[in-house]
Amino acid sequence: MKFIYRFGSHRADGSARMRDILGGKGANLAEMTNIGLPVPPGFTIATTVCRYYLRHQQMPKGLKSEVEQGIRFIEKVVGRGFGDEERPLLVSVRSGAKVSMPGMMDTVLNLGLNEKTVQGLARLSNERFALDSYRRFIQMYAGVVLGAKEAEFEKILKEEREGCGAKSDAELDAATLRRVVSRYLTKAQELTGQEFPQDPWVQLWGAIEAVFESWNTPRAVEYRRLRNIPDTMGTAVNIQAMVFGNLGEDSATGVAFTRNPGTGENRVEGEYLNNAQGEDIVAGIRTPKPLEQLSQEQPGVYKKLLAYFRRLEHHYRDMQDLEFTIEEGRLWILQCRTGERTPRAAVRIACEMAQERLISQKEAVLRIEPKSVAALLHPQIAPDAKYTVLAKGIAASPGAACGRIVLSAARVVELKRQDEKAKIILVRHETSADDVAGMARADGFLTAAGGTTSHAAVVARGMGKPCVVGCADLRIDYDTRKVFIGSKQFSEGDVITINGSEGEVIEGEVKMVAPELSREFLTILSWADRFRRLGVRANADTPEDAAQARSFGAEGIGLCRTEHMFFAPDRIGVMQEMIMAEDEAGRRRALEKLLPMQRDDFYKIFRVMDGFPVTIRTLDPPLHEFLPKSQDETEKMARRLGVSMDYVKAVVERLREDNPMLGFRGCRLGIIHPEITEMQARAIFEAACQAEQDGVRVHPEVMIPLVSDVAEFRLQRAVVERVAEEVFARRGVRVDYLVGTMIEVPRAAILAREIAREADFFSFGTNDLTQMTFGFSRDDADRFLGRYEELGILKQNPFDTLDRAGVGFLVSLGKRLGRQGKRGLKLGICGEHGGDPDSVHFCHEIGLDYVSCSTYRVPGARLAAAHAALQERTRSAGGGKR
To answer: How high is the pLDDT of residue 285?
Structure first.
């Protein structure tokens, strides 16, 4: 088995197609070599070695000799020797998984330095540079390989800066750095209990093992979990000749994107630092310069850099994220990868690249992750909002968020466990890979340090969250939990707002508005609609929701929950009057008051959805949900209805249920009190007739909830049809309508053939179907579902992503039996799973007609449906070739 693959000096053993073996970084280093870019020579240890090492806790036989051959290859290309005291070769050791995991795993730079080689390096360059490189290596190696706390070394560096009055590390002279190195070596031995290794080969093998071990660090495991990256891939190790950006002011290190990663604008965006190494810019310790400034300092290098950027973007046909080093005026490209970008930027880049004919319209659609679409619909600060800007930083990821200040990732996780709806802004001096769990749960990030390529910025764009970095007027006292923003002091828990589009930090909560969809996004969605087969409807209960759904491209309403109309302040009293009635006559009097309210709502919804179907579910929740919970509410209701407190309490007690999920609700209400179904049916058909007379094309669909037996459905359908005929006869107008049912009880899925003979359509209510199949309460399951995912009992929360094995089986069964009972039976899904991309794929695969989801998930569902269709075609085409 081949363990290493060489690259550099215009030759490479691998290519971009070998990501499984070389990892993303190694594959791209090989590819850049093949297309003629200046890449420092090196070699990649294959991912297979990592997997072997993690299984056996030892290196495979034969690796040692291949690594030695790889080092000899680098020595030959650069003309230096590994461990040579006169002309020392230094190398970097970096991770590189198949899927990019920025900052999650470990890196060691300047490896090969010791007490003797540092002197040789000084003679080749200068003493200050050599000592600076050595102190960096000791700190990084001690932290990554030996497990020492790097903060202990930072304390020493800070003391030395303060002692000589230096503002930055670059101002430390050789004498100071010599003292820093001596103190570092002593501190490393003190922290680790062993002498710092002086043998470069011992250093190398230690670093290789550390990179393999970093695959399973908590931060890397959490990152993979959040991104659904398999734990079995392992990482490659890239060993590469060092080139130095810290040799003086004509040297530099930088990071750049071939297009703006925040907006998608077709313009190079980047930053660089003179006299620095790569970790300086990524860590956000120093404030970098904008890349455009390089055109004045080194115009020739800048021109070459732009030419390489263009070549790489056209070669890879995507926006690239690059790292480069300038060593005494000579340009080197150290890394390229597909760049992380905000969802808004992703849309613009995909759309414009398709229009530039770099990619096809199908590729453009497939490049937009449906899960990321929600970020495009995140609130922005309202144009008329009045607010006070406390400070400004760098706009790192667009959108706005407001929430409580929280100063640690661990605290974010803790607070979100207590209240998933809590709004939180993670405020840090700078973030690191260890913060990823908290960052995933926070609503936005604010940091004092860093630029647009810092850790916080990159992660925010990847997660689609607002972020402001490099806020010089932000100071954090972690000991007292106080935050100073501009001239004001805040405590942890106080509320602020961040505007990631403008880089603003704002006092308190600010009025927000939903953003408008961009022209590019609407174009992508129009392409997606051409490719998808599944229809996409919205769950909408008000005319306003319906209008918003139409603006997002919904092709109808798949679920209108009529009970939501009864909770309005001017209606809840009438609903309570109906519930409190002593007999049917009393209930009918109250229902007569509710009739015009419901009729008006339905009329407005029909007008908004002109020409599209509207599925209206009859009353579903148990009646006790409309009754007061507190003593104060009970007193108010008794006064309003003119009844005694004792009477109200007696009714509340009579309607109280031990398990409302399984109680007196859904079609059971309409069967025991058919006057409720009568009123709702009358409101639907009177509104439909009026809308039809006003020139609106109406397609009402009446949905009976919680059916478990065909007899239940038959009884309710009879009520609906009787009322419909009465209304049509009285109005002299007839409209086409359907009567169907919600399949949300396992028994209904099992008896779907019989039910389908009586029903015009099925809509799978997967929220309740999931609860009943698992026996989990949606309201209480969060107490244990997180732990279930950690233990591997469940791969994901079944209320977020449809459980294919259990709930999905029932949906498939209901679909198959339903169409056996009635050919052409219309089938949809209206639980929240209708907006989850994985669940949408499932609905496409089993042949449902449509999905219905909450309004703001409609665009994502349209994209997901297109992805499902396109990926199915790709699989079919592949199958044909085989």
So the answer is: 61
Question: What does the radius of gyration of the chain's CA atoms come to, in whole angstroms?
Answer: 32
Strand pairing class (613-617; 107-111): unpaired
The secondary structure of 763-815, three-state, reads EECHHHHHHHHHCCCCCCHHHCHHHHHHHCCCCCCCCCCCCHHHHHHHHHHHH
Residues 688, 709: Cα–Cα separation, whole Å: 29
Cα-to-chain-centroid distance, residue 325: 32
Q: Which residues fall within 8 angstroms of residue 625, CB to CB, at 6 or more apart? A: 563, 660
Q: What is the number of other CB atoms lying within 10 angstroms of the CB of residue 570?
A: 7
The secondary element (H helix, E strand) that includes residue 700 is: strand 699-704
CA 432, 434, 436, 439 torsion: positive or negative? negative
Distances (CA, A) of 644 to 273, 576, 634, 636: 78, 14, 10, 11
Residue type, 585: A
Q: Which residues are catalytic?
A: 455, 830
pLDDT at residue 882 is higher than 50: no
Q: How far apart are CA 285 and CA 161, in angstroms?
A: 14
pTM (2 d.p.):
0.76
Summarize pLDDT for 224-243 with one digit per residue, the tens: 877 778 888 999 999 999 99
Q: Nearest 5°: phi and psi at 633?
A: -65, -35
- CA-nearest of 713, 695, 693 to 704 is 713
Report CA 658 to chain centroid distance, whole Å.
Answer: 38
Q: Name the strand (E) or helix (H) holding 673.
A: none
Check: CB of residue 520 under 8 Å from CB of residue 259. no
682-723 pLDDT, tens digit each? 999 999 999 999 999 999 999 999 999 999 999 999 999 999
Joined together, the tokens standing for residue 316 give 């890879």
